[in-house]
Amino acid sequence: xxxxxAIIAGAGDFPPRLAELAAASGRPVFIAALDGAAxxxxxxxxxxxxxxxxxxxxxxEELRRREIADLVLIGSLPRPSFxxxxxxxxxxxxxxxxARAFRGGDxxxxxxxxxFFEGQGFTVHGPADIGPEMTAPPGPLGRKSxxxxxxxxxxxxxxxxxxxxxxxxxxxxxIADHRVVAIEAAEGTDAMxxxxxxMIASGRLKIAKGDGVLVKAPKDGQDLRVDMxxxxxxxxxxxxxxxxxxxxxxAGRVLVGDAAELARLADKAGLFIxxxxxxxxxx
Length: 283
Description:
alpha/beta; 5-stranded parallel sheet; 35% helix; 18% strand; globular
């Protein structure tokens, strides 16, 4: 896999980081920045064009003109409405496929996106395939490690998320005092943490010092090429503000972006961030 790579970029720090790593490996990189999500200025002097979702046909034409066969989709993007796509003429013929993809949850929609690009002859890679150093490594990221009791909480949290996988809910939970305190739903990880922080601040929830762990992991069977869980500095700040003790991540299956920077912030906040390899995970 040494030919040109297209990065279809949404919002956040992960797309520019991946572009940097891919370019450093010596391969040509083309950025397709999704309008209203990606920040073109974050990519510096990279080869970049911006596209609306309704300009899919134009994007495909450009990828073929450049003889690009490999692509990766990365970055956050609010789920669009099918009616709001505003397709150009070159995109109209693809609408039946996406009409079917929109008839389901986020997982169904993302699988439909992958199937579409594969059906057009492209190979869809996951961020970890291009930049494995962007994922959580096994063990602690910073100086602080989880205690045995905190590791028990993490294991319980991972078991919970695995059990919830068939329901296509969130990818994170907070475990404290040997019980489930919160499960991520449609509000997202950071909002879930703030909700717990509000309960602690109001006295409705009491968490002892050294207790309270955020766990994050993909659902069983989740397509990590297009839906890999992620944390960043904002997540860490929310965990610290809520008074939790640390973060447990499935090693190799959660994006952390710049692991060294995240470790530095964790050390400064006095938190642990630890990657956990589970039975059945590929090395």
